[in-house]
TrEMBL record:
The lineage of its organism: Bacteria, Pseudomonadati, Pseudomonadota, Alphaproteobacteria, Rhodobacterales. Signal peptide: none annotated. This is GntR family transcriptional regulator. The keyword Phosphoprotein does not apply. Residues 17-85 form the HTH gntR-type domain. The keyword Zinc-finger does not apply. Keywords: DNA-binding, Transcription, Transcription regulation. SMART domains: HTH_GNTR (SM00345), UTRA (SM00866). PROSITE patterns: HTH_GNTR. It comes from Ruegeria alba.
């Protein structure tokens, strides 16, 4: 039974009320990013209420939720402190300049869990991105990737049915999608990728063990083959405390002055 002033979401207890959730998520982000170190004592409720422009009751609800979820310890007379956490896995890092080889390597060094898979009509934005006819069928698969037993990404992939016919649920549970595409005769040529930010909805929050509304990195990618046809459309949602994207830059000079450009760093060939 949910206690008064608390709501359940994503397997984690959340404080009721928008203001309490705002305080909760702000403090949780500072703890996850390491700006509030383990064992550090937080300011008192009165000071936090002043800092956030809310009431002490609002702050108390947020602190109680953080304590119940294991992020804080609260003891009368000793205040509120950040609770030491088990050693977190090393964050997964990808470099934009060497993206595709790294995807295969990450696929082999992390654990995958297939959440769902089905054939269905491509959503309008997917059909447009892949150059498909309206209503054309695609395989829609949802998976999580984990490292050290902790899920760090929620992936939704769309693959045209002409390619996905040879990809089973067992395949999706065992191999990186790029490997499966190549096994089905696809010659991957290039990809276009964009990165933004979003908030975790109920389904994604539950899959990643986060509270609803937690901040996530959002990555959209369209992969094309040697003929220019779209072969995969991906939407990836990533925990920012466990995943990062790097880009190497080189300082170059031309007739108009000096500026930064992406530096392509060769990777060793990944064993197949």
């Amino acid at each position: 039974m949910t206690e008064p002033g608390m709501q359940t979401g994503g397997g984690i207890r959340l404080p009721a009320g928008a203001k309490s959730r705002r305080v909760y998520l702000s403090l949780l982000e500072q703890i996850s990013a390491g700006r509030l170190e383990p064992s550090r004592k937080l300011p008192g409720e009165e000071q936090l209420a002043e800092d956030y422009g809310v009431s002490r009751v609002t702050v108390r609800r947020a602190l109680d939720a953080l304590a119940e979820n294991g992020f804080l310890s609260r003891r009368a007379g000793s205040g509120t402190r950040v609770r030491p956490r088990p050693s977190a896995p090393q964050p997964v890092t990808m470099d934009f300049s060497t993206l595709l080889p790294q995807l295969v390597e990450i696929g082999r060094s992390t654990e995958v869990r297939l959440l769902s898979s089905r054939m269905d009509a491509a959503p309008e934005h997917v059909a447009r991105a892949l150059g498909l006819a309206p209503g054309e069928a695609v395989q829609i698969a949802q998976r999580t990737r984990s490292i050290g037993g902790t899920a760090y990404s929620h992936l939704t992939t769309y693959v045209p049915s002409r390619i996905a016919a040879g990809i089973s649920d067992e395949d999706l549970s065992r191999e990186p999608l790029h490997v499966l595409l190549e096994r089905n005769g696809v010659q991957i040529a290039d990809a276009r990728q964009s990165v933004s930010a979003t908030l975790a909805g109920p389904e994604v929050a539950s899959a990643l063990g986060l509270p609803e509304g937690a901040a996530l990195l959002s990555l959209d990618r369209v992969v094309r083959d040697a003929t220019g046809r779209g072969v995969e459309c991906l939407t990836g949602l990533y925990r920012p405390d466990m995943f990062r994207l790097d880009m190497s830059l080189a300082r170059v000079e031309n007739g108009e002055g000096r500026h930064w450009e992406p530096a392509i760093t060769p990777l060793k060939e990944t064993p197949r």
